[in-house]
Design goal:
6 copies of one chain form a homohexamer. The first copy, chain A, has 9 helices and 9 strands. The longest helix of chain A has 24 residues. Chain A is globular, with a radius of gyration of 22 Å.
């Protein structure tokens, strides 16, 4: 039982489907004209039952479908069980909630609580991916990424003398716009609003809207601007989609922590793609997530005894 | 009676003040150490009474101050009388309100009315400059710029088949964030919020906030996103401060109309700066507003009778 | 009876032809080795008679050729009847000639008349496309684009105080180089001179050459330079192919009007490509004509009665 | 007793000296022609005794010299006592040496020991600044920066699953080239070799040279390349001076940790420059160390009791 | 008997092999599933014996394999006989050695002799290609390129008054890192060290290492830095992979001579690719080696008698 | 007797004149208010008689004017005697004419002769500078630069197999537009046409115009396009002012030869500016002509006997 995505070559000589489930992705063998009845009516995002076998073709595994795909009703399955996932996210919440309890600024704690003490928000935040097909593109990826950014930002903030409460606020708020920017039911996709407004501004609007619901303002206008700045500036530069560049120490800390989590995660995922390397230490592919760099996977033990990690 | 701005050279050998009033700017002769009592206590944005005479020094006029500057209380004067101004703005309102009455989409008209039928909004919009020191940097500059963009966008929209109502909505909304981004009491300056969030996002937040005040949503969420997109995308490219690039025909029309008004206004202002040209047809200065281009002022009549344009 | 263009995959497993006529483009089903006799001798730009049927393959229409293509002699057909076209161009000429009659500068009118009162020039200008495969890529596209630019430039010029006669001169002259830069017999292609010199400089050379034919110079050297500058600077920036950037108000006006016509036309064409959207409001394709942006086609009526525009 | 640096304006109307000592920098009042005997023979980097008084001139403190500067012999003073300093560096060494003892790879520990167990190396490394006039530009700045990078890299490495030993190796080796690239006797300056080769490559050459001194290679050629790559790639991109971009997870971790330490340090130093702000929350100056961004120093306590951090 | 490289399309419908030998490259006809036994076990870089015939398919020659490829043992053949080659390289050595004998600086001559009087170095240098698949990508390409750069640099150096000995030193040293950066046994490939460190820095390290072998330093440290600078700066700009930009006249001369040889060689190779032109004077392909420019091959004789060159 | 150029500081506290003659440039001591009668009526480009003395002020020579400047009538002096010059240019003409006589293509020789056999053209070409204030900015600089480019291009062309006649044609034609783009009477300046059209296109127009004067076309249209392409493409890239990039081997050769002459000339001039170095081997100034690089002037003799270069 698998999720399906269709591809076709220009000219349509054949079609290859990408099936995916929680454990990974697999391409089908090509479907030629005669095979088309097998895939009739299947569209991107549909959940299907597949009968076939996995074979190796010139060094790559592919799934040869031997019977027509059977389309399953959306309501019949929990599609997120079929998507890649980071697993249990409780540990990430524990880290984030623990640090949140250390906040010593009352108005700041209250603002964060408007979102982070809200069960519906937590339910969605705990499942949202951190990207569509880049770093942490998995159910639960966003909260995992947030916990990583928190750990890194905490260290950078301590080293540079930043305010730890504001740093944590930035960590918790910077990506909330992804809840409205992405869809993760069936496939990972941008919502229309995600395309039109982007997750950076969507996050600022979400915070603004949530604050407006309170009869009494939970913080001053100046404080609100500082929080909005943290969200807006977290991409660091205009050409990366931030409408303003960081002007506070905490925004600077957040920017580098976010980058560090995202880019090392992409590198680490690249190094796990065995097919990209073949027999070589240097990848034969250039990874778009790494700005088209290659990766090198060293194998030396530097003389260490093999027990270790 | 003039507005004053201080300058000093690194090392502080002397100080030059820039005085300004509604009719232009004038630099002072240098103040050396012995002259300092004349300028004691005067700061940028202060309103002062000046006694002195205007002389020419190597081809530039300068104001030689002959008595100590007299600081005037802020409440005693209408500082905007001392700032450059575009003059009476009624004509611009007439154009904009006239076209607004042509709107045939009820929900769109209602959203625009939330701002443009509000007297306080109109009072502020009618005085706000369109930039701090670039194009239309004058009291009333914003509404003049808006009327220009409207005229241009109307033509581009007609030619390209865009929806005229949405184009006008974009024209009227794209720069509303400048009301919170700039200050124009005494000198033209960025507000703190203008620095931290930028006028592009401030405009989106203003619209969001205003919509939230209505008990019943004046438009659908999808319609709101289309309006927010018009605001957010009007700079056209990420590196120019838009967090998203135009995705609708109306956003594309708005972007080019805005650019056309701003850039031709800068060129036209450059050509009026007689001092930049001296005796030449080509300016000796490269204008930063024109990305450091020079300007050329032709003088030929192409054989036309002199009876004026 | 159709125009044909060949494509082949690296490795040559099959070939797909793109057929085109005045109403659009259509891809063939793939030709495999056994089908090659069907396409023997057919080259890009040839006019052929096709027998076959149109079928749908995974959501795309394709033409299945059922008999060998029949090559038609070039002289036997008016190839431009087979190319996309903007239709009757009289209305564009009326706009341009009407505005040209308003010119009040005798020498300027005379220079423009050297080209625009010449029947051969008009015949070619009225059929030339405005680009090979971008905006207004159709027979008559250039004169349509010119009329659009004229309308937009007229408005921008009025708003910014530019000289209307010079603005119109720029509009009429800026793209004349395309007459020598493109070929539109059979397919739209660059001429060798178009590749080697570019339409910007070809236009300047054309004007220079035409002026040189007159026994008595129709304008002064300074005036000629102003016209040449309008042509050369119309792309606005060096990296876009203009060897000089605009230095006059009229050149600035022209640049933005040209951009506005070209880019909104591309956006508008993108929005009409139904296949790029499928069921979505956001295009699944990124359009190269829009610098790889996606497009969004809104569907809301904002509460307006359906009577249409 | 102070260090002196001379400045002069084009045209030479006057001269301003910048005096510095361990506690900061101070500009002199201008020296005009008549004052020149006071500064006779003083050159950049000289140590001088100054007699004068500090006064305020238009909001900036300046030092009015009232007697001729007295040049002191270089040998008579410990010039580094006159330079800005990070203070006692033992704590940084403790961190670095402590983590170094945790290394579990014998050959890696041995390579690092070749430098970090060498007393002469430690003496120089412990005094070298981390930049000439950017971040950590102080005696001891390099070892402080190294300890910061170590802390940050340790966290990023843990989060991303990098090899902790290789990450630490990168931290300890990445900036060793600064020992040959900078001079810190009197003033902070680039050495000629620093200009010609840059600290990135100088570091690689230093490691290569040190390894060559060992009779038996302390590591394999492949391992050496991995270490050299860490040094060479630490600026992350070609345009920032790295001849290769990071290809290993550890090089990626190092790059972001280095950036985070350097950039947040620059931001933090900018926020401490009271003169750049005057009465404002937003700096009036754009800091070159921050790519010409302004900085914002918030003052809100968010309702927290004043007992301080 | 040929070298083989495998390609496959995404989805794996078929496979095309590129065979190469000293006289060029040739693609195979596609291998479909049924043909797979023909290519069993063949990998990139293998030497194989091929039986088949060459046919034309839509204007391109392709090799139809009619019997299983026969893998040959690596030791059985001199693979470099199968690779493209520049032919006999003695003439290049004569030029370089001749000019080297003119050097009048003893220590410089000695340094160069450490490499260029070493037989093993000469053997490798004389076979190494100058690039993997760009300019001079052939056995012996590096020494040919070096002789070209020498001739060009000699002329530029004479015209600009550079030191001829240092210019020659730069020419001889700038690309020595390619010996460790490339592999040319079977196919042209980067070594792992080539990926990790790049040929620019590998060259600097090679020189450093060679100098370290001498008991007595053959030149002063300042002289060594000048030589290392020549190597490091030869790409001219940071974004092209030089960690420092040229600061000496000789480094500037070298940079332009290197560029001139590489880029005109690429253009000249592009013009020889008949398939890229078809019937046209302008190539239908944009060459990546020329930054995606097209090429034009003129055919005029300008009235010259045909005897010609 | 000297040429004069005025400078003034913002605020006008004083004025510094730059005097120049054929042997160099010298700045005046500052003129303060009281000194203004000395410089009354003197403007940029005027020829004046100066009485004064040269003194050293903080390491820079300056000219103290002790009597009012005396303005000389333009007709009374050969201003080019007062401008920097490359000296006698016969040797450059001999090189160029000698190589021109080797041309074996009759129509090409005839086209070049239209300009290069014209005495008026030669007179102007032989005096024109090669830039306003960059490389070869001296009377005769253009023909000197042309001879340098010829020598370099000849070598590059030989190495790369380019057509030597076309290469020489490109060398001789590429900069002819500078004759109309610059003025060199009194000071080096751009003409208005130079600003509006640029020397690249002015050169193309000059050639076009000259060819049009011939009753019978001296070459075919295709040949003319090849020559125009050589002129237009010689800056190599759009962002450097070429409206098209090189598409022929000869245009590529020309581009690199032109760059090599210009850039090494700038480097060589930078190294001769003793004031930029002071006591250092590395310049304290970054030269704008070298894209803000510093320069290094080595002093080692590498053990060579001192007997001159």
């Amino acid at each position: 039982m698998l999720e399906a995505e269709q591809r076709s070559f220009d000219g349509g000589a054949y079609t290859v489907l990408t099936f995916g489930n929680a454990s990974g992705r697999l391409l089908s063998a090509p479907f030629f004209d005669k095979d088309l009845p097998f895939v009739e009516g299947v569209r991107r995002g549909h959940v299907v039952q597949v009968i076939g076998d996995v074979a190796e073709y010139r060094g790559r595994r592919q799934l040869r479908v031997t019977a027509p795909l059977r389309l399953l009703p959306a309501a019949a399955v929990d599609v997120t069980l079929l998507l890649p996932t980071v697993g249990e996210v409780t540990r990430y919440w524990e880290v984030l909630d623990g640090w949140r309890r250390e906040i010593r600024k009352p108005r700041l704690a209250r603002v964060l609580g408007l979102l982070y003490d809200d069960d519906d928000f937590r339910a969605r935040y705990g499942r949202c991916p951190a990207s569509i097909n880049g770093h942490h593109a998995a159910i639960g990826g966003l909260v995992k990424h947030t916990a990583e950014v928190a750990a890194i930002a905490r260290t950078i903030g301590r080293v540079s003398g930043a305010d730890p409460d504001l740093v944590l606020a930035g960590v918790l708020l910077h990506d909330i716009g992804k809840l409205e920017s992405y869809r993760w039911d069936g496939v990972f996709e941008y919502s229309d609003g995600g395309h039109l407004l982007g997750h950076v501004v969507l996050g600022a609007l979400m915070l603004e809207r949530r604050l407006a619901l309170e009869a009494e303002a939970p913080c001053t206008p100046e404080e609100r601007d500082v929080l909005l700045h943290l969200i807006l500036a977290h991409h660091g530069r205009l050409e990366f989609g931030s409408p303003v560049a960081p002007m506070t120490l905490e925004a600077e800390v957040l920017h580098w922590a976010d980058n560090a989590s995202a880019k090392t995660s992409s590198m680490s995922e690249a190094l796990r793609e065995a097919e990209a390397f073949g027999d070589s230490l240097v990848s034969q592919r250039k990874f778009w997530q790494l700005d088209y760099r290659r990766a090198y996977r060293g194998v030396s033990d530097w003389g260490a005894p093999p027990a270790g990690e």
